[in-house]
């Protein structure tokens, strides 16, 4: 049964990959002038790849330390009743549909973020990331990254929490018996043990951030260019959001171009997950019983 399930997953994955490759070939082999924008498929997809990775990296940089801190608070600091309530709330956040996050981000969070974007422009405008001019509606890449961070925070927190709870009690008690404070015990025993779990949770969250569609489409003001300016109205799009926005009206070769961009996103996700698996396997020999 288990073997059959594993084979079925591989077959489905191979089927999806074969479909994407077959439908992508016309777009990849088409003359440059036939592809939207007139520059060929690579020129078309490059800004989307850049925007996808930029939004996901921002989300990961914000969400990972917050998630680890929340997981540590739940497992090692909070009273039992409070920890149970917080765990329930975190799990509930993971069940909120992405369209709800998108609407909240577009009509509430983006507007509330405008003073912060203006502050970044006025005080840190000498840094290219915050050069401005700041978006007067909050429709900037930094805002999208923050919303994506909120979306992936429950995933990373849930994984980190379960891993931290599995830390061998002998390690924790030994550190405390040697005179370590609670934070020193966490730093020497809990975090090293849970490092691979943190990486796994971060990669799961990154996978959701890479493929997020509606939240990005509702919030981001897309110009199509490549820029590192995180607070302006001119932003690169993302692959998933571009497919969602363009596919209903696409026909002919445009459909193949969108499917080919989906293949690129598929390969990016596969590469990131493979890298995460490699990192985790390098630490597989570490055992809490040793």
Distance between the termini: 34 Å
Strand content: under 5%
Question: Treating each run of at least 4 consecutive H or I residues as one helix, how many helices?
Answer: 11
- SSE arrangement, N to C: HHHHHHHHHHH
At the fourth level of CATH, the homologous superfamily is: MetI-like
Percent helix, as a range, is over 70%
Number of domains: 1
Computed CA radius of gyration, to the nearest angstrom: 22 Å
Number of strands: 0
Q: Helix/strand-derived class?
A: mainly alpha
Please name the CATH topology. MetI-like fold
Question: Major sheet: size, sense and barrel closure?
Answer: none
Provide the CATH architecture: Orthogonal Bundle
Q: Average the pLDDT over all residues and give the rounded result.
A: 83
Taking pLDDT < 50 over at least 5 consecutive residues as the criterion, the unreliable ranges are 286-290
Main location: membrane
GO molecular function, one term: phosphate transmembrane transporter activity
Function: Part of the binding-protein-dependent transport system for phosphate; probably responsible for the translocation of the substrate across the membrane.
Subcellular location: Cell membrane
Structure overview:
- This protein has 290 residues and is an all-alpha fold.
- It has one domain: MetI-like fold (Orthogonal Bundle), CATH 1.10.3720.
- The protein is 74% helix and 0% strand.
- It has eleven helices and no strands.
- It has helices at residues 2-29, 41-77, 80-94, 98-112, 114-124, 141-165, 169-177, 182-211, 214-219, 239-246, 253-282.
- Helix 1 packs across helix 11 (253-282), helix 2 (41-77) runs antiparallel to helix 3 and helix 8 (182-211) runs antiparallel to helix 11.
- The two termini are 34 Å apart.
- Residues 286-290 have low confidence and may be disordered.
